[in-house]
Design brief:
about 400 residues, alpha/beta, Rossmann fold, Ribosomal Protein S8, Chain: A, domain 1, globular, Erythronate-4-P_DHase, oxidoreductase, EC 1.1.1.290, D-isomer_2_OHA_DH_cat_dom
Length: about 400
């Protein structure tokens, strides 16, 4: 069996090397292979003999890519989004598809938290006095909500699709056996009125609730001077040209951009107007990327009717600082120190500003330094540190 995988999928060799040598799908005279590729430049000729194709979000999987291939039976995307996949085409050809929903949700939530910690320190803001509008209540929005709850930060969630589903379930519920999402949802206008706006929606073009250029010139014009706008979902959700025009006109909204319209071609004129700018790496923690590999491994094992032999814990290394002892009352200063000790987003911001023109957008992503999640670090609390906030934020408890 020939398994082609994006070269930026961590632990792909560890997870899939044994599977490619199974007899399933191997023709007479052929042997199994595990073949890496560059996601942005993949061609139909390269994958003409693939049995399994494992991609990330930069690879468009459609008829143009697969028209030379008569053998492929499984396509997986080690990402949460599917806007790069022609699902209708795969279904028409009876090609099994799996993605990795939620794989990097914790990583993105921790990126947002690191950004808020940095801006709170930069502008002397009290985090617990802020309100946060989360636009998109899926896996990532939920993980962010959990961390804000741990910190006692008021937040509101806008997700009309989940709100409608919630109503439909409540209306259909007669016997109490269907789990209900009991969150209170707000309108987009209410979310955009919060002190911090954090965007976590997929790219949706058309339909009842499109997100393509969701934050357009009209919505941007209604923002207050003291607000913070964070985008760590898809670059096309914000009209970058309109955002640049707003900032050039002198608007004071503070911007954190991890994603950019038209990637990998970035509107470089916008960068100097941002507080934090990065190369679509919010979900690029080692754990976040590796969970995608693990989830596709489990899905492929299921398709092949074999029991999974490995899990992510088999391959993750220890953190560089594996244990932290806290001997004081937990407060915002300690939060700043703790978060930045594990992940300081200013590192990625500096790399982006200094190296974008030298390396290019995709190279920055490909060569992204190892970054860990809070869970890689065990936090021990003394009796004086009466708050268990670190553990509720995701740090490991001994």
């Amino acid at each position: 069996m020939k398994i082609y995988f994006d070269e930026n999928m961590p632990f792909a060799k560890e997870f899939f090397s044994e599977l490619c040598h199974l007899n399933t799908g191997i023709k007479d005279g052929e042997s199994g292979e595990l073949i890496p590729f560059s996601g942005r430049t993949l061609t139909a000729e390269q994958v003409a003999d693939a049995d399994v194709l494992l991609v990330r979000s930069i690879t468009q999987v459609n008829e143009q890519l697969l028209h030379l291939n008569d053998n492929i039976s499984f396509v997986g995307s080690a990402t949460i989004g599917t806007d790069h996949i022609d699902l209708g085409y795969l279904a028409k050809r009876n090609i099994t598809f799996h993605s990795a929903p939620g794989c990097n949700a914790i990583s993105v939530a921790e990126y947002v938290l690191s950004a808020l910690v940095v801006l709170a320190e930069r502008y002397l803001l009290t985090l617990t006095s802020l309100t946060v509008g989360i636009v998109g209540g899926g896996n990532t929005g939920t993980r962010l909500s959990e961390k804000l709850t741990a910190l006692g930060i008021e937040h509101k969630i806008c997700d009309p699709l989940l709100e409608r589903k919630q109503r439909e379930i409540k209306q259909a519920q007669a016997n109490g056996h269907i789990p209900i999402d009991n969150r209170v949802y707000v309108s987009l206008e209410d979310a955009l009125a919060c002190d911090v706006i954090s965007l976590h929606v997929p790219k949706i073009v058309g339909g009842e609730y499109p997100t393509d250029k969701l934050i357009n010139a009209d919505k941007l014009a209604k923002l207050r001077e003291d607000q913070i706008l964070v985008s760590a979902c898809r670059g096309d959700v914000i009209d970058n040209d309109a955002l640049l025009a707003l900032k050039v006109a002198g608007h004071g909204v503070k911007i954190v951009l991890d994603v950019w319209q038209g990637e990998p071609d970035v509107l470089e004129a916008l960068i100097p107007f941002t507080e934090i700018a990065t190369a679509h790496i919010a979900g690029y923690s080692l754990e976040g990327k590796a969970r995608g590999s693990e989830m596709l491994y489990q899905a492929l094992c299921q398709q092949l009717a074999i029991a999974p032999k490995y899990q992510l814990a088999n391959f993750l290394p220890s953190a560089s600082i594996p244990v932290i002892d806290i001997n004081q009352t937990f407060d915002q200063i300690l939060l700043n120190q703790l978060v930045k000790m594990v992940y300081d987003v200013r590192r990625d911001d500096a790399i982006f500003r200094q190296q974008l023109s030298v390396q290019g957008f995709d190279s920055l992503r490909k060569n992204y330094p190892v970054r860990r999640e809070f869970s890689a670090v065990t936090v021990n609390l003394s009796s004086t540190a009466y708050s268990d906030v670190p553990h509720r934020l995701g740090f490991t408890k001994n």
